[in-house]
Ras-GEF domain-containing protein (Vannella robusta), 109 residues
Amino acid sequence: FNRTSGWVQTSIVKLFKLKERVEALTKFIELCQLLFEFNNYNGVNEVLSGINSSPVRRLKKTWAEVSKAQLKQLEFLEKVMSHEGSYKEYREILHHCDPPTIPYLGTYL
């Protein structure tokens, strides 16, 4: 989990050009969506953790350039994977999804 999250952070923050950082951040949001569609909820949380890390969130100019559609998608994924209510929304989705799935292990630990 930590290695993937760190990889996401590093992949975004190491880029010097704004356009490259925006492209990388957008690709990771798209990756999150694909992981969600493939029922890989552990992967979704790994990537979300990297995207929502302090070093990435501090990149104000980068976030300002991300499209509204991408931000809306990210907001949806954050809401679904939120730990509020003991992962209530995530548990509901997990209960109704078709196998195979890779659950988020942090829910059970």
In short: The domain at 2-107 is CATH 1.10.840.10 (Son of Sevenless (SoS) protein; Chain S, domain 2). DSSP finds seven helices and no strands in the chain. Residues 18-37 form the longest helix (20 residues).
